[in-house]
Amino acid sequence: MYEFTRRSGKDRFLYLGLALLSLFGLGYWWFPAGLPLGLIMFFFLGCSIMLPSPKRDKWLKGVILGGAAVGGVILVLAGFTSVLPKVINDLLSPYMQHLTLIQGETKSLFPAMGKTIAELQSLDWKTTMKWIAGSWFVPIIAVAGLLVLVRRERRTLFFVLLPCLFFGIMSFEGLRFIMFLAPGIALGIAAFALEIVRPVAFSLFDRASAATAMAVAAAVILIAPGTVHCMSYGLRASFDGNMVLVAQEVNKKAGKSAFVWNWWGPGYMIENYSQRKAFIDGGLQEPQRSWIAAVPLATHNYTLARNWIRFFAKNPMAITYFSRLLKDTEKATAFLLEALKDKNKLSEVLEKYGLPKTKRNWSKFLFPETEVYLVLLSDMLTHGSWLPIGKYVPGGPGMTKRSPFYAIPNEKVMVNTERGQLLLPEGRQLPMSRFYIIRPNELRHDVFKQSGVVVIGVSGTDYVIYMDEDHLNTLALHLLFVSPDKTPGFTPVRYNPFVGGAWRVD
Question: In 3D, which of 205, 392, 212, 160 has the Cα closest to residue 293?
Fold first, then answer.
């Protein structure tokens, strides 16, 4: 876009085409990002109307700004969806969902997901600066360099500095926006070195070689904090080869039309290696679908879990369907939670909610013959958002903010198996009901004749996890650590306590 506004010949349209091609590629790779970033890019193009430019460019930029104003009004009205035509609502829906995901808020009946996603966590000012460039002072110097560029070439303001500041502000709302700052910070560092340090050094030493050396040295010094931060930041793969084997086993055993049920974290990995459609992944964490995915994982009723998975795998939009029938989403979720518990009591539930028994074959619809595989990974112990979300009842008390699992460093905890006690810092003592040891090829546990917390130690980690005894009875943890091969309705396909497993939902 910068080159499109700077040039006056026909070749400028080549740069416009490259910009649009880049946006198309981004949208193809990550659909929710393509349109918003395109709108941002054209908005700053419109703002450059104050720059000297041909009359037809002024008209184009005026149209863009007018469109931006209309778009702003539509976004405001999007909070009142009944005002907008259905076609506009359908167009805006994925972007409004993504916006609420970033904000960690939702107007939905279901829990917001933004705060459960690591890359959407908000950071304080100093931490954000460190993630951007390794130190708080480097971005400030980079902005100084960009200001020099703006003074020399005003169009830099609209295509470098303002977008950089925009994404800088957005990065405080969500960690993922930091990546868009890299080009601006790099240009700012280069501008500071070449436009400030080099002229000053030349005036002092009167030698071009010395001035260039000083500019290079300044650039290296400014790049160093970020380089050190990148080199020292330990990246750990989210999934390893053993987890991949679980998904590959599903690929071997499942029919071509089979579904996979999972929590959203490993969704992309599961889809890639199982070659089957996962119910949820990193691009589908809107509130309703996330709640649907979590309910069977967090329930103690394994029959409900089985029926729920088989039904929603085939009918993922069923809540919308029943909301229209019952004219209330809260009532629709209550109906499904009740109806899917027991096929034999379906007639009573239909009568209770006033659904005509002759409308369709309800038994066949609600209890379909669907081939589904449930994939659970043992890291669900450390990524526990599925538990409070799955236990949440729409229309009931708000979702608990209390963490379901507690990780305590090994050096700060002691497990007394003789007395069945967990000794915590500051002398706190908790009775244990069970103590699990998980090794690569072994699951061992001690059971104590008392109520208390469940303690889990995982080989190779530097912490111990403990939780309320009640959590161990949820389907996910029951299959992972209590009864992987004797839970009715769930036939193991591959299982390792250290990794996780896959089960056919019968």
Answer: 392
CA distance 215 to 459: 51
Q: In 10 A of CB 214, how many CB atoms?
A: 19
Q: What is the DSSP letter of 396?
A: S
| Residue 233: other Cβ atoms inside 10 A | 9
Question: Shortest CA distance to 332 belongs to which of 400, 284, 395?
Answer: 395
CA angle 291, 295, 300 (to 5 degrees): 160
**Residue 267: both structure tokens together:** 């969704």
* φ/ψ bin of 241: left (φ > 0), alpha (ψ from -120 to 50), beta (otherwise): alpha
| Reported pTM | 0.75
Nearest to 505 by CA among 226, 171, 259: 259
Rounded CA-CA distance 478/496 in Å is: 14
Closest CA to 113 of 95, 99, 123, 127: 99
Asked whether the beta carbons of 362 and 346 are under 8 A apart, the reply is yes
User: How many whole angstroms separate alpha carbon 239 and alpha carbon 496?
Assistant: 15
At 242-290, the pLDDT tens digits run: 899 999 999 999 999 999 999 988 899 999 999 999 999 877 778 899 9
Question: What is d(CA 176, CA 186) in angstroms, rounded to the nearest whole number?
Answer: 18
β partners of residue 373: 260, 504
User: Residues of 244-272 as b/e, b for ≥16 C-beta within 10 angstroms?
Assistant: bebbbbbbeebeeebbbbbbbbbbebbbe
| Long-range Cβ contact pairs of 169-175 (< 8 A, separation 24 or more) | 171/123, 171/128, 171/132, 172/122, 172/123, 172/125, 172/128, 173/102, 173/103, 173/120, 173/122, 174/102, 174/114, 174/119, 174/120, 174/121, 174/122, 175/118, 175/119, 175/120, 175/121, 175/122, 175/123, 175/131
DSSP conformation class of 142 = H
Q: Which residues have C-beta within 8 Å of that of residue 363, sequence separation ≥ 6?
A: 343, 346
> 429: which strand partners?
423
Q: What does each C-alpha distance from 53 to 60, 103, 278, 486 come to in angstroms?
A: 11, 38, 51, 74
Write the burial class of residue 305 (CB in 10 Å: 0-12 exposed, 13-18 middle, 19+ buried).
buried
157, 150 Cβ separation under 8 angstroms: yes
pLDDT tens digit sequence for 422-478: 888 877 888 988 888 888 877 887 888 888 888 888 887 888 888 888 888 899 999
CA 449 – CA 432 distance, rounded (Å): 9
Sign of CA dihedral 342, 343, 344, 350: positive
CA 398, CA 503: separation in Å to the nearest integer? 32
**Residue 3's pLDDT band (cuts 50, 70, 90):** confident
Q: What b-and-e string marks burial along 91-124, b requiring 16 or more CB atoms within 10 Å of the CB?
A: ebeebbbbbbbbebebebbbbbbbebbeebebbe
Q: What does the angle CA 301 – CA 299 – CA 344 come to, to the nearest 5 degrees?
A: 30
